[in-house]
Amino acid sequence: MSWFDRLRRGLGKTREVLTTDVRDLATGANVDWEELEFSLVAADVGAGIAADVVEEAKRERESGTSVREALEAALLDQLEPDRRRQTLRRVGFDLDVARHRVEPAGKVVMVVGVNGVGKTTTIAKLGRYYQEAGKSVAFAAGDTFRAAGSAQLGVWGERLGIPTHVGPDGGDPGAVAYDAAAARAARGHDLLIIDTAGRLHTQHNLMEELKKVKRVIGKADEGEPKDVWLVLDAVTGQNGLQQARRFHDAVGLTGVIVTKLDGSAKGGVLLPIVRELGVPIKFIGVGESAEDLQPYDAAAFVRALLGGDADAA
Amino acid sequence: MFENLGDRLQGAIQSLRGRGRLSEADVKSALREVRVALLEADVALDVARDFVKRVEAEAVGSETLMSLTPDQRVIRIVRDELQALLGGDSVQPELRSDGNVWLMMGLQGAGKTTTVGKLAYHFKAKGRRPLLVAADTQRPAARDQLEVLADRVGVPILKVEDGEAPATTKARLDAALREDFRDLVLVDTAGRLEIDEALMDELAALDAAVGPTERLLVIDAMTGQQTLPVARTFDARIGVSGLVLSKMDGDARGGAALSATHVTGRPIYYAGTSEKLDGLEAFHPERIAGRILGMGDVLTLIEKAEALEEAAEDGGLSGRPQDFSLADMLHQMRQLKKMGSFGEILGMIPGAKKMMPAGADVDEGELARVEAILSSMTDAERTTPRLLDASRRRRIARGSGTTVQDVNRLIKNYEATKKMMKKAGKTGRLPAGFGG
Prior knowledge:
The complex is a heterodimer. By secondary structure, chain A is of the alpha/beta class. In chain A, about 50% of the residues lie in helices and about 10% in strands. In chain A, helix 8 links the parallel strand 2 (about 135-140) and strand 3 (about 165). The longest helix of chain A is centred in the last third of the chain and has 17 residues, at about 205-220. The two termini of chain A are about 15 Å apart. By secondary structure, chain B is an alpha/beta fold. Chain B has three domains: about 5-85, SRP54, nucleotide-binding domain (Four Helix Bundle (Hemerythrin (Met), subunit A), Up-down Bundle), CATH 1.20.120; about 100-290, P-loop containing nucleotide triphosphate hydrolases (Rossmann fold); about 300-425, 434 Repressor (Amino-terminal Domain). Chain B is built from 19 helices and eight strands. Chain B has an eight-stranded mixed β-sheet with strand order 3-2-4-1-5-6-7-8, with helices on both faces. In chain B, a hairpin with a 7-residue loop joins strand 7 (about 270) and strand 8 (about 280). The longest helix of chain B has 24 residues, at about 405-425. Chain B is flat and about 75 Å long. Chain B starts with a helix and ends in a 9-residue tail after the last helix. The relative contact order of chain B is 0.09. Residues about 315-320 and about 430-435 of chain B have low confidence and may be disordered. Classes of the chains: A alpha/beta, B alpha/beta. At the A-B interface, helix 3, helix 8 and helix 11 of A face helix 2 and helix 6 of B.
């Protein structure tokens, strides 16, 4: 089963409502916009944005498009982090490009997130993704807090044949990151992915620690990390926006990765995150195996959400 | 978007003020706001809709009571319904004298393994003899993680081998129990998606083999609309006897908690409140109602304060407000620190968050600086702040790694506080603004 199919299956409930509506439309019945709005809320889009999307879709409808096209346009609009592109899209430019590979801006990527979202597993998948793209990759096990946190990444590194920089349990995560960044620069790896311990965004001291880790990476390797990616669990509700906001304030996010989209969760909280923070989505995780991490593409995501054809992607 | 549900309810319902009798349209528009507010707190859609329907049925058409204005009455109904939804008293899991087997389950990353560690710690302290079973063969190093926790708590662990049949696990468990008396077995299972049939079957098989006395579903407090299908499926497939809500120390409003209780009809036993082993509290349903409504959690605050008071034997306050010294200030600060971070405490005081400017954060670093300054003073200086001349202040600044300006500011603040306390002492109450 392709990732697209999995995603589509996961997003099935939303789709059922939508297809019913389209059928109703064909027989001349009215669209139940309220029910549509509810189904968006049930996808964790948030009550505010769900209302906006429906309003926008209603407007689009007036210009004669189908319900489906109208919704697709309204959702894509919300998922466009770049204001300029959003304007272009609104005036009718088609900006959809083929799915692309995600290239990190620099040589070091720092991965952050709250507890239990799947950071370490995601890093393993990222390692494999870039390895297959022909890069030499290294890991740094910066989760020195959780019992056996470093061991978990170490196991993955061994499986994938990726050198993993491990510090002592309970050691200073800054020191691990510093050593790993310095080692990467010396050995000339193309990419270093640094794991960090999960932390709730409300914990002041731990967020300060995260800032420090980012700072010391820059001391070992000037200008790095150019990327800081937030890993977000798809089951997260409206609190996800708050998480993203706090991490963004602390360490400046350059991307978001959504995990566990293969469940029945739809990851709707992405919409408020993209809209409020303008941080792009980089990858989506749709399964446990390493190849289930896929570069994110807004158009395909929306099509899957609405139940489009896999061929069209 | 994260303003208190309580504020929003008040706002929504205020529009009803001044009406003698509530029309259906009035109530409908106010309740639409209520529903949005519930959804923003991650209350499940179905639950929110039911809830609003019940409130509507109760509010429409009924005559205004003598004592309550229509808006007050709706707020009352909302509050009562919310409390009813959450169930009544705090419930604890059933614990027999021996033969207790608890099965922990949930999605990946819900916090099962950490919760097992906390439960072991909690019950060991109460004189129980826990045994941990590491049955998470899916995630790399999951069993190592539990082993580290077992070591920290000082309890034995039984590790399930890769691909081990549930019957074998049961046999090994029985053998271990014959050798060493253990009255509480905590089984940590792999996280799984509720739609993963194969893994759910596996869990059902393990469940059938070990025959747990409690089946605990661990749910992340930050979960959104997915709580409903997750709780429903685990309950249907395995049966849930109680819930543990993890990561309650975040700023999630806890709608997930409400929805999960509603759908399973099972109580929430515990709430996880930190990453440390002692971060587990008995769950009090009425308190989450307060939290969702943004009414604070005074009860927890009082309890924490009481626990501290009992523990504090080292010289309390000197009594009369005019005698309030720097030593008392230091003592109070240390007491306060024991109750949790400042932000946490503020969250428990009704209305306190509202009084803070938007986006303001408590600077815990500032508190540390104040403590450092106070600690750098001599006992004499602390009890008699008049002694603090320029030279002493210079010394204190050096000793605490701060500046003379910091020291001056602290002393100024202290004097202001003392003045305020004198005033309060005279009128017998705190000056305006402290009532919340």
